[in-house]
Amino acid sequence: MAYHCPTDLTAALQIVAQSGGKVIAGGTDVYPAARQGENPDYYLDVTRIAGFSDISEGPDGFRFGAATTWRQIAGADLPPAFDALKQAARAVGGVQIQNAGTIAGNLSNASPAADGVPPLLTLEAQVTVASQERGKRDIPLAKFIMGVRQTALAPDELITSILVPTIPRDARSAFEKLGSRRYLVISIAMTSALIARDAEGRITCARVAVGACSPVAQRLPELEWDLIGKRVNEVNVTPRHLSPLSPIDDARGSAEYRRDVVSEQCTRAIRRAAGDE
Amino acid sequence: MNENAQIKGTAFTLDGQPVKAFPAPGERLSQVLRERLGARDVKIGCNAGDCGACTVLVDGTPVCACLTSAQQVAGRAVETPAGLCRADPIAARLVESFQDHGAAQCGICTPGMMVSAVALLREDSEPTEDVVKDALGGVLCRCTGYRKIIAAVMGAEGRAEKTTGQVGHSIRRLDGADKLTGREAYGDDVAPAGTLEIFLIRSPYPRAAFELGDLAAFVANTPDIEDVLTAADIPGRNVFGVIPQFVDQPVFAETETRFRGEAVAAVIGTPKAICDLNPESFPVTWQEKPGLTDVTSAQAPKAVQLHKGRDGNVMCGGFVACGDAQAALAKADVTVEGHFQSGFVEHAYIEPEAGFAQMIGGRVEVHACTQAPVMDLEALEIILGMDRSHIRIIPTAVGGGFGAKLDITVQPYLALAALKTGKPVRLTYSRVESMQSSTKRHPSDIRLRIGADATGRIRGFDFYGKFDTGAYASWGPTVATRVPVHASGPYRITDYRAESKGIYTNNPPAGAFRGFGVPQAAIAQECLFDALAEKLGIDPLEFRIQNALETHVPTVCGQVFMQGVGIGACLQSLRPAWAAECASASTFNAANTTLKRGVGVAAGWYGCGNTSLPNPSTIKSGIRAEGRVVLHQGAMDIGQGANTVIAQIFATALGVPVQSLDLIGADTDVTPDAGKTSASRQTYVSGNAARLSGEALRGQILERMNVSAEAELAIGGGMIRATDAAGTQVLDLSGLAADDEGYVLRAEETYDPPTRPMDENGQGAPYAQFGYAAHLAVVEVDSGLGTVRPLKFVAAHDVGKAINPMLVEGQVEGGIAQGLGMALMEEYIPGRTENLHDYLIPTIGDVPPVETIIIEDPDAHGPYGAKGLGEHVLIPTTPALLNAIYHAVGVRITQIPATPSRVRAALRAAAS
């Protein structure tokens, strides 16, 4: 068993090409999932790889290094379209978790209730991954997470960064999280909305994504389509809009409840995104 | 700092000092700090980032040490709670401020709170309440209710008085400083690093048959495994329990397990061997059998019987009747009835069960967290088949108990392993093990019907409650007995019938949890009282005041108290808040459509001490020749404050400053039995023993010195000075013979509450005293989502005499937080909510301000009039919240927890 903590990507990709290892960044999912008496062949710590903790703006959009923490995101100087992501960052666990947990860790863990996924879906984020053998590739987030704890990441690949391509002008966003307590809570349901409006207040761009109500968080295309041209006070979320969702009954809430409450969350998130609370 | 880390070591700065450790790859920082670098002030509560107890600063940033690999801090600066307390001026201020506010109770979360607060205050010296909550939201506390922590961090003026600590003074906890600075040693903090460890093999099924394989081969073939223990290794009897007629739980199951998490074997090995032990490698084969997972299936005609002689899986029942409930109900002008249900509630103390044992001079010595050291000793006598003189129990500090640390947990495994190996051994339950195997609050299924006449007098009360006691009895019989006695609430009810049954199932054993079933019963009674008041058109608070129990009026057990029935005063004290909050809610509701506010009230009572059974406490004290006064204080302090309160009572009785006492805690070799920390009995029962001990010692001194009863004593410097109107006398202690413990004067006194047995109708005198409580809760319900946000509590408690008002407030706020959790979010589901992220307890953002009103209606028996308090505090909380929800949105929640899902479903049902 070994603990690798490389500082450059090439070395990291060389290590991850060997099977049996565990990639670790914030440790907030790795340790809780650890099982008594079972150890990986090696740990690959990605937190010291050059550029992995950087947030940068380039011609192709905003890029978040894989090991960017929620605390960094919450405190970053980003356009209003990222407000939902920042609100989600502040809703992840408590400060200890926000200080350690990373954006790529949240995506690769592929929990249906991952707080980062709905806002990143509305930002149409791309996941940049790399391997020693095949180099880099970009995967749209909606295709990256394939199921509960399932992603498109190959065993020899690492997530290197998350790219948010150019966002619609004047877009604003909001995140709604519903849980049974204030802090340290896994969402019963959550909704992220990104909205742009014209000078008359009519919606020109709408993206809405819902988490914890299906194996993978989902955009709601029919709702988004219906929102175009409407004013915020005309928003009416119908069961048809929620058809991509397939909520389950669990200890946190019933499927029926999730369906019921999500339409309320969508309405609230859209209103808040539009600055009309 | 990469591949060769294990060989080259991981170097970092620990509290300003360069250190180097040699952790295994991926070893948690918490483990390295505690076991390799001696920083036992870093506490581990969950090992999953759910509780924040292990918070440390890495380069100034708070993180959970349990989620941080040791290698990640290479080259970085790590700061621990103890280090900060030594060197950081902000931490130094917090150490004082936490003590002045009573912000640490059991103290197990305190290091995590302190570290988080230091990180905050370095960036923001004057944070708002919301900022404090955000900064501390990642640390769970189960004792305090958080409000005093918020006040301490915000730097509000402290509550503590700097006095001699006589009865009635809000002095700091006498054991507070160690809790703040990280010196306090809990169950997992006493074993030397490297001690052999134990891993328990537990049933993965609610019910299963099993066969053990070749254990000798397993031991021989697994490196560094020392031995395995099973039922075959028990020299005495393989059974334990807390109530003599209901001792039914094995230390190790023998052929069949009765609940998920039941132990069948214990593996003993070096720390590395236990860390590397894969449970799959242990030779056991399981055959899952259909389990009975609720009381209905357990009572079905052909249900498998869990225990011999318990037909229909009925463990036992309780019964109280007076007058004629049915006849009164038939004649009542109005009646209401309801069906109320609750689930398992987990104690969720932040310190998991833990301890250490060793053989000393042929005797076995157990150091573990416990609420009942002498009961632990008695259980081990039976299990080990050893005379009690060969066993010593030295309790560690206890990081929360709330009832579940009354039962033995780690103790028999530790003792058996120490005996078998002859070596020191150590065992700490993981959070999942703790939650699977510890006792729970009983799930309840209650049907109740209450009548009243048109003037609002209660006419007829008929209660039937079934309680799921799980696989073993534990304190189930106590719940069955207590519930019918208390189900009336603190009211005058002349025609009453209450029956309870405890039913065995294949669920975890349900046992003692703050209130012993009374909180569940109070939900039914207090919610139906609101329904009755509504039907009668009477204000719900006035309805309760009208029916409140008074002195000279018999309880439903026919017991008549001539003084100290303070429920009327509690309820009346809520009148101003009730009027103001109802008006304020009404104004708010007129202006809001989705958010709705409501106000609810509820009351409760609780009998202190055992129910109609002997329940003595003994307190010993002595004076040494050099003039030191020593108090042997055996009442376990599990955070509630016995170490302070009992000492205050003793010091008052003797007439010396409490700070002058030398305190010796529970230890079965040197401190007499002060009974269990349970049933809200320590202030009352052990407090009385302390009072008697102090008075007896004072009596000896006065007599010897021939001074008046009013004499002021000064003890020290090898002498006692007694000053009264006649002048000052001096007693030279060096002239007195010392006994074998070194005492020249000593007094050991016992107090046992006067109770009388109950007859077949529950008529008698079950308790020498009751304490009383009434709560008012204000909530805001988001009718669109079904979420409930408590906004405020006003809590009135009749404590007879507040020995330490600051600690009274602490109990009230902490009890309310637990009651709030039970009401709104907590439900233990075996196999599904076995950790602290699926099982939710309130965080710092969930507990609103609590205004405590202390009522002092002195009790005839209590020391200086004092009554118990610990359990009373959460009895009214849940029904007050449920009544407030009804007031806000018009729906009655009859099954707790009132999760958003349930509240919203009720709202939808009401709308359609």
Q: How would you characterize this protein structure?
A:
The complex is a heterodimer of chains A (277) and B (912). Chain A has a domain at 172-273: Enolase-like, domain 1, CATH 3.30.390. Chain A has 10 helices and 14 strands. Chain A has helices spanning 9-16, 30-33, 70-75, 83-91, 95-100, 103-109, 117-122, 141-144, 221-227, 255-273, and strands at residues 2-4, 21-24, 42-45, 55-58, 61-65, 126-131, 135-140, 145-147, 150-151, 157-164, 172-178, 189-197, 203-211, 218-219. In chain A, helix 2 links the parallel strand 2 and strand 3 (42-45). The mean pLDDT of chain A is 96. With 912 residues, chain B is α+β, with helices and mostly antiparallel strands. In chain B, strand 1 and strand 2 form a beta hairpin. The radius of gyration of chain B is 28 Å and the shape is globular. Chains A and B meet through strand 1, helix 2, strand 3, helix 5 and helix 10 of A and strand 4, helix 6 and helix 25 of B.
Q: In terms of quaternary structure, what is this? A: heterodimer
Distance between the termini of chain A: 54 Å
* CA radius of gyration of chain B: 28 Å
Please bin the fraction of helical residues of chain A.
25-40%
Secondary structure tally: strands of chain A: 14
The name of the CATH topology of the domain at 172-273 in chain A is: Enolase-like, domain 1
* Continuous helix count of chain B: 25
